[in-house]
Amino acid sequence: MTNKTKLVDELQLHPSIQRMARNMQYKLDKNANKKGWPEDENGQRGWMNDACSIEFLQRKLLEEVSELFDALEGRGNVALEAADVANIAMMLADKFEAGACSERVQDKERKND
Questions:
Q1: H-type helices in 1-113, by residue range?
Q2: Phi, psi of 74 (to 5 degrees)
Q3: Distance of CA 54 to the CA centre of its chain
Q4: pLDDT (tens digit per residue) in 60-96
Q5: Which of 20, 38, 63, 103 could bond 51 through an S-S bridge, CB–CB 3.0 to 4.6 Å?
Q6: 41 or 89, which is more confident
């Protein structure tokens, strides 16, 4: 059991949420060095860097939902594919909470001017 998993287990969360959180962390760790994610000017990948756009994450979410549907039809691990969907949803929420939403609205307003 990793320290991250232990932390989840110590929280007073519903067992289903604990399982999902463990699966989410597992998938984040497993995919930490996965190619295909935008890199910033320092070569760093991650959803909170400026190179990772909302649009990129929206496309990833659609890909992951498709993979979840495949798993539901017997072509994959449902729990792990659901964790991928949840991770991308979390990344989008993080970006919006960090102000990406206001930047995106401003960009749309500039395009309409």
A1: 3-10, 15-30, 54-72, 78-95, 101-112
A2: 95, 10
A3: 11
A4: 999 999 999 999 999 999 999 999 999 999 999 999 8
A5: 38
A6: 89
Instruction: Find, among 40, 38, 33, the residue nearest to 60 by Cα.
Output: 38
| Residue whose tokens read 């995919």 | 31
Look at the block and give the residue holding tokens 């890909």.
63
Do 22 and 5 contact (CB within 8 A), yes or no? Answer: yes
Q: Is 39 helix (H, G, I), strand (E, B) or coil?
A: strand
**Residue 60: Cβ within 10 Å count:** 20
pLDDT over 80 at 54, yes or no: yes
> Identity (one letter) of the amino acid at 41?
E
CA dist list (Å): 74 to 67, 71, 79, 81, 108: 11, 5, 12, 12, 41
Burial class (CB in 10 A: 0-12, 13-18, 19+), 52: buried
Cβ atoms of 79 and 85 within 8 Å: the answer is no
